[in-house]
Amino acid sequence: MTQLVVQSALSGLLVGGMYGLVALGLALAFGVLNVLNVAHGELVMIGGYAAFFLFSEVGVDPLLSLPLVFVILFIFGMGLYQLLFRFIVRFDIETRIKNSLLISFGLVLILQAVAVFLFTGDDRTIVTGYSSNALVIGIVRIPWIRLAGLLLAVVAAFSLEWLLNRTTFGHSIRATSEDWSLAALTGIDVRRVYMIAFAISAALAGLAGSMVSLGYSVSPSIGLSWTLKALIVIVFAGLGSMRGIVVAGMLLGLIEGLSSVWVGNAYRGVVALVVFLLVLSVRPQGLFGRGSGAHV
Amino acid sequence: MLEVEHLGVGYGDLQVVWDVSFKVPAGSLVAIIGSNGAGKTTTLRALMNLLPALTGSIEFKGESIVGVPTHRIVELGLVLIPESRATFASLSVADNLELGAYTKRARAARSKTLGEVYDVFPRLAERKSQLAGTLSGGERQMLAIGKSLMALPEMLVLDEPSMGLAPIIVEDTFNEIKGIRDRGVSVLMVEQHIEATLELVDYAYVLELGQVVIEGSSTELMTDQRVREAYLSLQ
Amino acid sequence: MFRRSLVWWLLVVAAAVVFGLMTQSERVLTLAIQTFIFGALASSWNILGGFAGQVSLGHAAFFGIGALVTRELWLDGRPLAVAVAIALVATAVAASVVGVPMLRLRGIYFAVGTLALGVGVWLTAGNLWPGISSLPVDALRGYEFTGPYFMALGVVTVTVALSIWLRRSKMGLGMMAVREDEEAAAATGVNALAYKMMAFVISAVLAALAGAAFAYFSVSYYPQFPFSVVWTFEAITVVFVGGVGTIIGPLVGAAFFVTGRDVLSSTFPELQVIAFGVLFILVVLVLPGGFVEGGERLHERISRRRTSQHQQATPDATPDATARESVKMEGKEKV
Predict the structure, then answer these.
(1) What is the DSSP letter of C239?
(2) Where are the beta strands (DSSP E) in chain C?
(3) Is residue C125 part of a domain?
(4) Which residues does residue B60 pair with via DSSP β-bridges, in sequence order?
(5) B35 to chain C, closest Cα gap in Å
(6) Per-residue pLDDT tens for A197-212?
(7) Do A171 and B80 touch (CB under 8 A)?
């Protein structure tokens, strides 16, 4: 029994790291541009397919292709911004959120349909020579490919932290997200900041997708559930807290994993959501959020 | 330095500024005076292209800046300090100042300018790592001015620099503004604090309901009957 | 003025009744029923999201409960009316219970909180009722569109009538006051929580009513299906595309949504979803305020015959503020 509990907990932590990584990208887009991109999960899916085909057609190992996938999704993100989201940043925040929700909904339809058309609806998983290798510690077995996902999430979080806090460009991103008109008055090209922030957000999704197709599987329909998870993780962590996002993701995964021991796979998701709602009712600003949250 | 002619600005359906014209000659200190709702802030925002100008022309250093992206206008040397929220509360004092020198031109001289700003405002040097949001009103004003100086402005525009400050700090601020002008930066300030402003500036325009109603040198205005009655509460 | 628009509405309903009696085409009837159900669902969301300004992402939970309870009781032998009544009561209770903790949250917290709720209910429904729900064989053989048509028409009429009444009532004013500025409303003595609760429960019950219509209309589906978050997203998009906060908005949006998808499925069978996505995005970009606002602007342009008053920044200018943001300059902007 102990073995089951610990193993489930660990599996949960590992997938939770992925939740955190996906949430990180979405939080960046939302925090900086006030754009709610519900097609974020589809970007994860695209990253997954990119890694898959780089492996199956070109033979590039998925861990080595990570930088390439980052670049591909970065460019794709820039394209999406220029083509679509650029037009809604001229509105005030409320309208932005509303219109980005709508536009990205259309995007979900398009991207999913294109994926089905190009790749068929089958599940794909990257199987490498080391896919079945695992780190064995006592009674638990930690698959390397999933551990890699968690490590990537942690590295991404720290890198993002570093970018935002220690570089001038990162400061310009934070400035823009705090007050874009003051940022413009400070000489910052707000449009460019928006574009790059959005591109980074897409690239992070792509990285997550890579690891998903390596450690789990990818199919055209996975997008929505990743987006939903990401939204919940973001609020769970608390708005305004990049740091806590990966932690919150891991925590959510942990809760899912542990609860699966007692309520089975069918209800693990429900338990996690219930815990999430309970935490939110006691601490409306999220686990690590600053400020009052939105508590009446 | 700055020439604005027949400027008209609106928000959607609502026109707030009608046919406003004013000039800021190089090296001078000019004020636009008016009470609340006169259209002062709107005019300034249109200057920086935060709002589109419906009609009229805006020329800075001889070139039109209508429709030019805001950050480009800053790069050209025209810097606005907005009335409130002129600093980034979530960034430290040092980060705010560094960010102030964001444009290419300013960045090259960043460390030198930073040293100068700290010399002029030692209090900011003391609070280098403090978050701007935790500063007092007067300190934040100092930071706003320091940040704008980091951008190496050729002309500085201030929106109600005295707003919300204690009288003694207002005096310091006005002296500081005078100092900035004396160092060669043209200054345009928008104010409600009329008496003190008139004592400070060379020339002023009175704005009422989106139009310039009176203009003249500060001495002229101080002795103008209409100004005295309406704004200086004197007979 | 109101009398006149009331007459218009009655004419529309009458026309719909006549239409239902005259039309034989199954396809047209299906489209009409789908439009009514979507219109009702969207209108119900509009009461909470449009009037009271609380964006709920868990709306499908109530649509699902309405469908589930109606379907189970009705297929079990109860008269439809009874089944629907019980479904509505159950939903009212559920919404009242859930509303209290949920409405303490605001903005994106409320949105994601209701989302979590909706997804949780969807998962649970899928677990408890995994098997498909199909009409019994004799009902299938004798399936007629008339019943579902008039039920759906009835549902959307009730929903719209309630919306119209609400909009003009004191309750509606209270809701809109809360939407504009909750703190300010509370400061003037408006019980914000009470109004939000009323909007929440009313909107939930109406969603359940739409769900009941769905249950009566659908031949076979998985009970989990109406709980899917996709219904929520589709309802929200219908509302915004049509015009949030208006009465006809959700209806216009529903009509566009349903017929658009159908037209595209026959024109571009392979790429219909892609074509719809593209069309959808274009609509949002061209008419950010929705069809109703677009229609109003067109009307203004025609009747006043002057160039548009609305200034837009050039695409290369820095992001600028619209009237609302600038006018409430010091206000609560940042989330």
Answers:
(1) H
(2) 133-134, 220-221
(3) yes
(4) B2, B63
(5) 17
(6) 999 999 999 999 999 9
(7) no
C309, B13 Cβ separation under 8 angstroms: yes
How far is Cα A227 from Cα A247, in angstroms, rounded to an integer? 17
C246 located within any domain: no
Domain that holds residue A83: 2-282
Q: Which of A178, A187, A190 sits opposite B75 (nearest CB)?
A: A187
Quick check: is A127 in a domain?
A: yes
% of chain C with per-residue pLDDT over 90: 43
* pLDDT band at residue B169 under the 50/70/90 scheme: confident
Question: What residues are paired with B215 via a beta bridge?
Answer: B205
For residue C141, the enclosing domain spans 30-229
Contact A187 B89 (CB under 8 A): no
Contact list in A for residue C273 (CB cut-off 8 A) is 109-110, 112-113
Cα distances (Å, whole numbers) of residue C108 to A179, B225, C197, C204? 19, 56, 18, 19
Number of domains chain C is built from: 1
In a domain? residue A290: no
Residue-wise pLDDT tens digits, B30-85:
999 887 777 888 889 999 999 888 889 999 998 999 989 999 999 999 999 998 88
Domain count, chain A: 1
Structure tokens that stand for A139 in this block: 């009674």
Q: Return phi, psi of residue C264, to 5°.
A: -65, -30
How far is C113 from chain A, CA to nearest CA, in Å? 6
Buried b (16+ CB within 10 A) or exposed e, A154-183: bebbeebeeebeeeeeebbbbbbbbbbbbb
Q: Which of B12, B50, B67 lies nearest to residue C322, judging by beta carbons?
A: B12
* pLDDT tens profile C10-41: 898 999 998 888 888 888 999 999 999 999 99
Residue C85 inside a domain? The answer is yes
Cα A294 to Cα A35, A179, A235, A237, C185: the distances in Å are 19, 20, 11, 14, 16
Given a cut of 70, whether residue C320 has pLDDT beyond it is: no
| Cβ pair B151:A186 closer than 8 A | yes
CB neighbour list of residue C17: distance below 8 Å, 6 or more residues apart: C150, C153
Residues 6 or more apart in contact with residue B191 via CB below 8 angstroms: B31, B32, B33, B160, B161, B162, B197
Residue contacts between A and C (CB atoms, under 8 Å): 155
Measured in whole angstroms, the distance separating CA B103 from the mean position of its chain's CA atoms is: 19
In DSSP notation, C28-49 reads HHHHHHHHHHHHHHHHHHHIII
| Residue C322 covered by a domain | no
Pick B50's closest partner by Cβ from A168, A178, A184: A184
Q: Do C115 and A232 touch (CB under 8 A)?
A: yes
Specify the 3-state DSSP secondary structure of B79.
Answer: strand
Q: Quick check: is A291 in a domain? A: no
Do residues A286 and A238 make contact, with C-beta atoms less than 8 angstroms apart? yes
- Going along chain B from its start, the domains and CATH numbers come out as 1-77+153-235 (3.40.50.300), 86-152 (no CATH)
